[in-house]
Design a protein that fits this description.
This protein is mainly β. Helix content is 0%, strand content 43%. It has no helices and eleven strands.
């Protein structure tokens, strides 16, 4: 008897629990996720692509935890990105692809908070006589730009 066995490729899968949690960061700081575990039932090489939700896409960093020539292929994916401030969260999509072309994806959100003012200078100290006018100048730097501002003086 001759038997033919057809082996069908299966896509890699993220391993439960939820592989990547939503995150909140300050604008101008790097966001990094790591340890998003996956399993590919075959002995396929696996690559990752990360769409950061702002029009940029980068390759994910794959670290394999399986060794030798035994299935399944297991490992994790990581990535790092610098986000700008915006009021809506970024939806990030991580896609795994095995050597046979099968894919799977997961999404999560990154909320980017407006950073606090990084430099505030009220000008030099002044001594004036009571009732005398004084001109005050100061400056600040806001790395997120595009915000509106209110200044107050506490005499």
């Amino acid at each position: 008897y001759l038997t033919t066995v057809v082996i069908v490729n299966q896509a890699p899968a993220f391993v439960a629990p939820t592989p990547i949690s939503n995150a909140t960061i300050i604008a101008g700081s790097f966001f990094r996720f790591s340890g998003a575990s996956f399993l590919d039932p075959g002995l396929d090489a696996v690559s990752a692509e990360i769409a950061w939700g702002n029009g940029t896409t980068t390759a994910g960093i794959i670290t394999l935890s399986s060794s030798g020539n035994a299935a399944p292929t297991t490992g994790s994916v990581a990535g790092t990105h610098l986000f700008a401030f915006r009021t809506q969260p970024y939806t990030v999509t991580v896609t795994l692809r095995d050597a046979s072309g099968a894919t799977t994806s997961t999404t999560f959100e990154v909320t980017v908070l407006d950073p606090v003012l990084s430099l505030v200078e009220a000008g030099p100290n002044r001594t004036v006589a009571e009732g005398e006018a004084v001109d005050l100048t100061g400056r600040f730097i806001d790395p997120a730009f595009g915000s509106s501002y209110t200044a107050s003086i506490n005499w």
